[in-house]
Amino acid sequence: MTDGAVETVGGSARVLIAADKFKGSLTAVEVAQRVTAGLHSVAPGVPVETLPVADGGDGTVAAAVAAGFERREVRVTGPLGDTVTAAYALRDGTAVVEMAEASGLQHLPEGVFAPLTATTYGSGELLGAALDAGARSLVFGVGGSATTDGGAGMLSALGARFLDADGQPVAPGGGGLLELATADLSGLDPRLADADIVLASDVDNPLTGPKGAPAVYGPQKGATPEDVATLDAALTRYAKALEAAVGPRAAHLAYAPGAGAAGGIGYGALVGLGARFRPGIEVMLDVLGFTRALAGATLVITGEGSLDEQTLHGKAPAGVAAAARARNIEVIAVCGRLSLPPEALGRAGIRRAYPLSGLEPDPAVCIAEAGPLLERLAADIARDFLI
């Protein structure tokens, strides 16, 4: 076997493409299509299977639909209170719900942020729609949020009440929680108690404090230092109100993995929905049928827009590589930008990475021409590993 070639079973290579999106340029489905085209331009006879993946953040519903789930669209409340169209995915009683579909940054006009007032109410409506459709197993992927309300809006949409000292509902958004006096979860949709809800996230931040949702992620959503302090105080008040409503577990869960995800919606899901936390990529690989797809593969190609230090902490390529490495299957990565040294890639189970920036140093051109460049990279992979 020549250096770099893949040792194949029965002398025949079989490739599985399991890559995430290149954010801002290519969806996960488009990445798979471009890599397939590039491989087949050099090795036309090699069998290729595609399984677009996601880690629970934006693109999760699209990955589920690509794997055979049915796409369902509903009209829900957006983060600014207007009506938006959001989608979830459904198959055999299992729903994949992506909070960003209802409450994500993509629903804000360019340059507009609402760190104190953006609401997750639509995410609760989206979960309710999945329950209405008969789902009793829900994968709730969180990430890409425009919100920092601790999931209070989501829980309100599902029947909870958050009241001020006068017994009136507090204003939407994290800022409104500064006036919170009482949390009442007794009116939550009873179907939630019988549903298996998994909080899928790659975030292990607590709800509040120096590493909490407002401090770490608030600035990405337009929060000033003063806004961060306001939101941290508001979410602290929120956690105390939930502790008074449901008991000490609410205080404990404020520090649990996933609590700080997506502006604290993870905390609302853990306390109010009875969700259990699992790393997003692990959940999605299970839901998408990755183990089945991996059977018989001799080479796995994964990737995402930027392979960097964050990739190693629960992002899709790291999860794919770990699962493939457990079966002694070679893993190659494609990406837009690479900032990990070879030894870090090796520890993650990735034999080699191919960045678009290696072909085109101008980032703007890389984004604009990501498809054709990715085909060229895939052709190089075929020459290096399949011939």
From TrEMBL:
Q: Which GO terms describe its molecular function?
A: glycerate kinase activity
For this protein, the record's SUPFAM superfamilies field holds: Glycerate kinase I
Per the record's keyword annotation, is Kinase included, yes or no?
yes
Query: Could you mention a single GO BP entry for this protein?
Result: organic acid phosphorylation
Q: Does the keyword tRNA-binding apply?
A: no
Task: Supply the alphabetized keyword list.
Answer: Kinase, Transferase
Note the InterPro entries from the entry.
Answer: Glyc_kinase_flavodox-like_fold, Glycerate_kinase, Glycerate_kinase_RE-like, Glycerate_kinase_sf
Coiled-coil region(s) at which residues? none
| Family membership | Belongs to the glycerate kinase type-1 family.
Cited NCBIfam families: glycerate kinase (TIGR00045)
What is this protein identified as? Glycerate kinase
What species is this protein from? Streptomyces corynorhini
Could you read off the lineage of the organism from its UniProt record? Bacteria, Bacillati, Actinomycetota, Actinomycetes, Kitasatosporales
